[in-house]
Design goal:
alpha/beta; Alpha/beta knot; Trp Operon Repressor, Chain A; 2 domains; five-stranded parallel sheet; two-stranded antiparallel sheet; 10 helices; 9 strands; elongated; binds 6-chloroguanine
Amino acid sequence: MKYEVLTIFPDMVDSAFRTGVTGRASGEGLIELDTVNIRDYSTNSYGSIDGYTYGGGAGMLMQCEPVYQAYLEALRRLGKGEPADSGTKPVRVVYLTPTGEVFRQKKAEELANEKELIFLCGHYEGIDERVIDEIVTDRISIGDYVLTGGEIAALAVMDAVARLIPGVLKNEDSAETESFNTGGLLEYPQYTRPDEWHGRKVPEVLLSGDHARVDNYRMHEMRRVTREHRPDLYEEYMKHRGIN
Ligand code: 6GU
């Protein structure tokens, strides 16, 4: 997988991605990260890339041309050349925006099938709609709240996609058994040594060595945790199983 990120904060994206599991994966050549600094494509001598919004209103917008030139640079780096005039989009371009589709595991799975992805991170009050229409294929939000820019959202999406790429997780089972891959239920609580801490005991069944009892207990816990913390997911789960 190769990621190209169009951003005005390339260092922020780089340093976060180089840390931890994604950092190791890029060291091993499983994922490549490259950033293009949109500010390098300013169309004026002041180096600005933003402007006031037509029709009035607070705040500034990122202009079309710097974003478009950064996009063309990313395409060149991916070996794609100039896009055809036909309006075809040679690579999926994910625009991070609170007005996008809310990001879920299913979308991460879909994106993990691509060989390369371009991420467009907005700032100020957003980006001129015309360049979005011209280059973007997917508009994604990471939840119903507002961030100052798209970088943290892009990092969240890149991380969720990266861990689905074979070899990125050391234990291949991990991606299978975790929340959202357990038939729509959340994960059960887990415990490690010692068996008592601050007067809190590890549930007796987990020390019993009885695998059937352990499995049964964990399934009950998955249902309980989902019902208590995410009633919306629990309802979906019950509907899926034909229980209403
Ligand atoms: Cl993708 N961007 C911004 N700026 N805020 C957000 C978001 C994205 N997703 C949720 N809030």
